[in-house]
Amino acid sequence: MGSDRGTTDRESGGTFGRDRAASCQGPYGGETDAGACGDPARFEVARHLRVPLRVCAVHLGPSLLPADGVLWPPGICLIR
């Protein structure tokens, strides 16, 4: 039984439809190295004109400066 609430990820703060078992995209979230870590993602780092970068605790720090489009000051959300 599916429910269409008419809410997008952006309108609900990115939590609607979020995959809880997402893998870490760290350390830099490039298209070629996405999922290179394989650990469960625990944080989302907001990025300008890009989907948020999901990273594990180990890659949270390294992702903040060199990753593409990361906002400053960084917007970080705990996802689990």
Automatic annotation (TrEMBL):
Residues 1-21 have a biased composition (Basic and acidic residues). Residues 1-29 are annotated as: Disordered. It comes from the Bacteria. This is Uncharacterized protein. It comes from Streptomyces marokkonensis.
